[in-house]
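Write out the 3D structure for:
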Amino acid sequence: FFRTSLIWGKDTDFRGVKEVQPHLVTMAGEVIAGAIAIGASIVGISKVVSAVKGRAQAAKQLSRGRDRRAAFDRELQTEKEREWVKVAGAVEEEIIRSSASELVQKMKNGSLSAEVVMTVYCRRALVVAEKLNALAAVNFEEALAEARAADIRREKEGADALPPLHGLPVSIKENIKMKGFDATAGRTAYLFQPADEDSSVVRALRGAGAIPFCKTNVPQCLMAAVTNNHIYGETVNAYSELYSSGGSSGGEGALVGALSSPLGIGTDIGGSIRNPAAWNGAVGFKPTGGRFYTKGAVGGKHVDYVKGVPIVPGVTGLLSNSVEDTVLAMRVFYDGGKTWDSVAEDEPTSPPLSFAHDVYASTTPLTVGVVSSLSLFPPCTAASRALAEAKAGLERKGHKLVDFDLPGEDELVSLFVSLAFGLGGMKAYEIGLEGEPLSKIYMPLKLGTSLPESVRNTLAFLLKAFGQQRMSTALDGLRQNTVFEFQQKMNRAEQLRGEVLSTMKKNGIDCLLCPAGALVAPYLPIADRLSPPLAYFFIFNLLNVPAGVLPVTKVEKNEAEYKIPNSKGVFDLNSKDADASMKNAAGLPVAVQVVAPPFCEEVCLRAMRDIESEVGFTPSPAAKGIDWTKSILSL
């Protein structure tokens, strides 16, 4: 303004304005440059202040995690010093080798006391906490008190008056609310905020006579197949400390796989029950979305419940050591569970479907479609052998086996990735962290969802040109969508779901049999690079169908490799990682997966039962030199 007044003044003759135009241009340039400089300074200062605040918040959240871990360690030490830990457990091996159904029956008839059973599992959980790092909270004293009360009730009322899960110890995934305990989903910001009430599934379990005795570890934000967070650290596999326990129900998988819980409750939105169960030699079951309790299951985003996007619902499900035990719990939930403690009031949208006992007990042969491979990532040799053994077992039971090509399999994979991360990327998870640093296991996702489009397109092109087809496809799947594009993909996913189900119905197929992942448990140092093999799990979340896994065999020494190229015949980086992961995998469990149409859980479980009865898998977990099949007292 000062320069303007000098140039024009009060009596300026604007007829000569052309003479001052160069001065005006210079002046405007200087003003704009000054404004830009001031703006840049403000932005720079703002960024510095934001960075300082971010580091301070991160330090605060990490400190909260360390405080909780230190408190938990003291809590575990206190539990180890209690008298019941030192009590001899002559019946321990009988207990851990009994099914949940057998345990309930023995506790009802008095041949085993609920207190003794609970003592054995509490003691085993303590050792698992130390060796596998599978726990996030313990409820031992309260659980033992409840077990003693259950014994008193049996003496007073008799076996006929007892509930169907009388005295049965149950472990609960950390993100499922249990009164008096945190449900953080692996995030430090949610520590020290104990739930004021039980989730629906915990209420149902308590009403049916079961006794929750611990909560198990999860990955930060729940969206990883590796269980690790800034609070409790990393959980390792029940069969080898070199390998992942899976995720996000990794603590449950390790605990159940180590024969240290007869029944576990987890959640599944992309394989989170099935991969931990498969990798730890356990049975895992994901019901159809909407048929099981979900209220009170905390999600990894900034929203409160595990809902996913509408087309990919998060569900609550089960981990156990036999199909029989899964059926025991499903019968309770579907038949009596709706009445226990008025749980139905919490889940008003659940369909009123009772367990179809006649379908499960039927001897009519099934027609089973066999999905032997996905083109994205063919199964390893051990997984193919397990599939062949399961097929042979079903055929011996009289079932008909036919090959089945899954319609639109590649598109299903791409759609799941896009619907999971293609609208906002990792932002919803980062908001939920409230300043806590994002775990390194999410760095590939973080990078893939935040690249500028020009960089993404160039990188995808180069990856494809150099034979890295799978990495190129994954990068493209992480592209961010507009709301309209996202809606279109949801519609397309629903169309594909209809195509798959109608094709099954047209061909008279009752259920599908397929590998439980292309690989077995991944090697921990490179587990975050082995997402493509998980497609065998998450496509069935997109289809929203019941799916279960069960162990069939173990990796043999000559199968500890992966020599299969990608669909273009290139032994790419994904194949190399898979080969490195399988190098020390001999002895790890190998599972298969059974899938049925929506709300046909009984058909799925029936096929799983028939496979289990024929393959005769015997659990033999042994992590860090510990044989979990032996008495804890001998360790």
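DSSP finds 22 helices and 15 strands in the chain.
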